[in-house]
Amino acid sequence: MPSIYAVAIFFLAALLNLVLSAPLAVRDVYAPPVLCPHNGTVWKVGHKHNVTWDISNPPAQITNRLGMIVLVKNGRLDIDHPLAKGFEITTGRFEIKVPDVKPGVYKLVLFGDSGNDSEEFRIEN
Ligand SMILES: *[C@@H]1O[C@H](CO)[C@@H](O)[C@H](O)[C@H]1NC(C)=O
Ligand SMILES: *[C@@H]1O[C@H](CO)[C@@H](O)[C@H](O)[C@H]1NC(C)=O
Ligand SMILES: *[C@@H]1O[C@H](CO)[C@@H](O)[C@H](O)[C@H]1NC(C)=O
What we know:
This protein is α+β, with helices and mostly antiparallel strands. It contains one helix and ten strands, in the order αββββββββββ. It has one helix spanning 3-21; strands at 34-36, 42-44, 48-53, 66-73, 76-77, 84-88, 93-97, 104-111, 115-117, 121-124. Residues 39, 105, 119-120 line the site of one 2-acetamido-2-deoxy-beta-D-glucopyranose. Keywords: Signal.
């Protein structure tokens, strides 16, 4: 089959998928609030810490169960080097290893369907 047809079919399929899933657009967006780290938390480079979040209020149906944790410095998300990803967001915690970053004030964002950021905390050597 000429590849142009394959491409066309691919787009048609994608379009159809979009149309079919449109009525489901009212999806539950789940990005639970981060409990730890919080203001006052100090992480040491190279140490392991649990990131925890509040799972007391999940929607009935979670669209994206897999989470990702990203470090934020001065409002910039280090999306290329997530601290963790592909874990079950319903577990409420995930142990990460603090990367070798410059000491300073950081935040992190927990992604589910959307993102929720933590309070500011410190990373030190
Ligand atoms: C993010 O957390 C806040 C509470 O800190 C909560 O009200 C909000 O619904 C959360 N966002 C999402 C997208 O779940
Ligand atoms: C993270 O939490 C788990 C379960 O409570 C615990 O077994 C583990 O030791 C914790 N990790 C750290 C670095 O505190
Ligand atoms: C947390 O602490 C920092 C100072 O390190 C401060 O600027 C910030 O306003 C505090 N509060 C929150 C919610 O991050």
